[in-house]
Amino acid sequence: MNHINKSMIKKVFLIGLSTFLILIYVGCENSEDQTVATFSNLVLEDEFDTDGVIDSSVWTYDIGTGQNGWGNNELQYYTDRPENVTVQNGVLIITARQEQFNGSGYTSARIKTEGLFEQAYGRFEARIRVPYGQGMWPAFWLLGNNCNDPGFTWPQCGEIDIMEFRGQEPTVIHGSVHGPGYSAGNAITKSYTLENDRFDTGFHVYGIEWAPDYVNFYVDDVLYNQITKADVTGEWVLDHPFYIIINLAVGGSFVGSPNSETVFPQNMLVDYVRVYKK
């Protein structure tokens, strides 16, 4: 994407943030009365404008296969190699490859702001183009910064999935929250279907606006879900700082394994990541 187009996108986006607080009625299974809080104080912005490696003041890496495929039976080995994660022409590129590497049949990348940027509440958003194909699992999500503290293992620490995508379902994305009593297959979630289009053919803005007692989920300018304290089936643990994770998984319990029709390599493209607070 050239600099002129990115500049125009930023101007349009900032104009859209002029409203402080509005109430709208949206058809939603969780609540018909939805609060939309627009946050305009920009506190983190990565436009990926410098070619090469990711900004080490903002991002670090998860490396390896984690425990039980990062808890999800995933098949990839995450690396920090340029073959799997790089920045080019103003875009972060995470690439999943089919290759033998350290005992795994696939490689990819997972980056995070743990220990570098963590925040409770506000607007978190990214402009992303997802890959496609059976077994591809890109995600943009938040994890509680106390997950490694004694007594606060997952899901007690909390998780907010801003965007998850099954590569075999190119018109649908998912937004969820996880906590004690509502995690994994029992997460509080809702899906959004893109009409007359596919998520893998272009960039879309995925975001949340998170307040002490609710999380609103957006695709582009569409508010499609609100999850409140009253909606969860256990303790509300979305009340402390979380950090950002962006990753492209291969296989796992959510999507299944790649099949003979899955093409490699596959790319997840991220135009920008922005965080605001009220």
Describe what you observe in this structure:
The protein is mainly beta. It is 6% helix and 44% strand. Strands 3, 5, 6, 7, 8, 10, 15, 16, 17 and 19 form a ten-stranded mixed beta sheet that branches. A seven-stranded antiparallel beta sheet has the order 4-9-18-11-12-13-14, with no helix packed on it. Strands 1-2 form a two-stranded antiparallel ribbon. Mean pLDDT is 89; it is low at 7-31.
Portion in strands = 35-45%
User: What is the tally of beta strands?
Assistant: 19
Largest sheet geometry: 10 strands, mixed
Shape: globular
Q: Outline the low-pLDDT stretches.
A: 7-31
Radius of gyration: 18 Å
Give the averaged pLDDT, no decimals: 89
Please provide the ordered H/E string of secondary-structure elements.
HEEEEHEEEEEEEEEEEEEEE
Structural class of the secondary elements?
mainly beta
The amount of helix comes to under 10%
How far do the termini sit from each other?
30 Å
Number of helices: 2
Topology record:
Blueprint: H1 3-15, E1 21-25, E2 33-37, E3 41-46, E4 60-62, H2 69-73, E5 76-78, E6 85-88, E7 91-101, E8 104-108, E9 110-112, E10 122-129, E11 136-144, E12 159-164, E13 172-178, E14 188-193, E15 204-211, E16 214-219, E17 222-228, E18 242-250, E19 266-277
Parallel strand pairs: 5-8
Antiparallel strand pairs: 1-2, 3-19, 4-9, 6-7, 7-8, 7-19, 9-18, 10-15, 10-19, 11-12, 11-18, 12-13, 13-14, 15-16, 16-17
